[in-house]
Design a protein that fits this description.
The protein is of the alpha/beta class. It has nine helices and nine strands. It has helices spanning 2-16, 30-45, 56-60, 84-91, 123-127, 185-193, 203-212, 225-234, 248-251, and strands spanning 20-24, 51-52, 67-71, 97-103, 114-118, 152-155, 197-200, 215-218, 241-243.
Length: 252
């Protein structure tokens, strides 16, 4: 994955030059905190000096012509969660340039002086052909040592991001709804690490499982995101991670 993150680093540094850099994370649930954590680790690792904006309203107060906004990656460009384009439309004139970190796109988007990165090489590229590919920023997190366990955890969505086609086990825990993008990732990872086998339709539960070296069974959500990221960044990179189209009770 190094070459894709190296490309991201080069484009960010070329775009930013010596200008002031702001980072605005995509708002979302606890899984989005994993994206934010990986992003902060990346920016610090490659030596990009930045100021983090904790909310959209902070960005609306800025009007610095010689500054660049790095907008956090995620799923805010889907039909179910389509908040990102509205926010950037309102504030893009406040910045010389905007870089949208690796995201999934269910439609085509265009914004002046904006570079969009795609986090998959498949469906998103149909809509955003010119968007450079880079892995989801959560993949920048180092592997996490964990003790192997034989227990099974179920972490399926209970919100509008669910496909509605999976039977949800009684012991299901939709922990992603228990935190936000600004929450600490450590309790999130710790909860997932209690199990050796994970079944989920939440992408960042699956990515956390990858980082922990667990056996992960990933299922579709309401659109193509999970399968597209699986094919782009999980298959061939992580062992014991499987994608299933069918119900949890029919898959393993």
């Amino acid at each position: 994955m190094r070459k894709e993150f190296f490309l991201l680093e080069n484009i960010i540094k070329h775009t930013c030059g010596n200008d002031k850099v702001y980072y605005l994370p995509n708002s979302g649930n606890w899984g989005d905190a994993l994206i934010r954590y990986g992003t902060l680790k990346f920016l610090q690792s490659v030596g990009i000096q930045y100021t983090e904006l904790t909310n959209y309203h902070d960005a609306t107060k800025l009007a610095q012509a010689e500054s660049v906004l790095i907008y956090g990656g995620g799923g805010g460009w889907s039909k179910a969660y389509n908040h990102s384009i509205g926010m950037l439309n309102n504030i893009h004139n406040n910045f010389r340039a905007i870089i949208v970190l690796p995201s999934t796109y269910e439609e085509r988007y265009s914004l002046a002086n904006t570079v969009f990165f795609s986090r998959d090489l498949h469906d998103s590229k149909v809509h955003m052909r010119d968007a450079p590919f880079c892995h989801d920023m959560a993949f920048y997190i180092d592997p996490i040592p964990s003790v192997k366990k034989s227990t099974t955890g179920y972490f399926f969505r209970t919100d509008k991001g669910s496909s509605g086609n999976l039977e949800i086990p009684a012991e299901n825990s939709d922990i992603s709804l228990k935190g936000s993008h600004l929450s600490s990732v450590y309790p999130f990872i710790d909860s997932i690490s209690q199990y050796g086998i994970i079944h989920t339709d939440r992408l960042h539960i699956a990515i956390a499982g990858c980082l922990l070296g667990q056996e992960v069974h990933l299922y579709p959500g309401s659109y193509f995101k999970n399968k597209a990221v699986y094919l782009s960044s999980i298959e061939g990179y992580y062992d014991n991670v499987f994608f299933h189209e069918t119900n949890v009770n029919q898959s393993t």
